[in-house]
Design a protein that fits this description.
By secondary structure, the protein is of the alpha+beta class. It has one domain. It has 4 helices and 6 strands; from the N terminus they run ββββαααββα. The strands form 2 sheets. Strands 2-3-4-6 form a 4-stranded antiparallel β-sheet. β2 and β3 form a beta hairpin. The longest helix is centred in the middle third of the chain and has 17 residues.
Length: about 150
Amino acid sequence: MELNTFTVDESAVVFERYDDETIAINLNTGIYYTLNTTAADIFDLLAAGCSVTDLITILQPKYSDDLRRFESELSHFVSELRRAALIEPSQANRERPCAQTSADGPKLSFEVPVLKVHEDLQELFLLDPVHEVSAEGWPAPQGPQT
């Protein structure tokens, strides 16, 4: 698997972790996503600047599944995140160091990372004037009337 790093365009994507899941909103499309525990772990590490190779090194030892299946599911999930425009390839040439997690304790059962798509609030997210705030704030002050 290639050594790839990604970034989250925080002007277009907002996300928050809540216990075992993450909610991410693509402000350009108005679509929001929920990510299960495994998906949230992967997304958090990608957002922190970890490479895909780092993800394998950090996360795979936590699970009882074989490395080949883990790599396959990880690759598929990263592709899903890219299609949803939640991540984009990083322009940086160097990787940020990633924190290693301890693999001590019993191995967890691998849960396939899931990116669940929600379009029910799309119109509301796209109508929200907060997305079009300029440096002057919202509502923008009007200039003198002539």
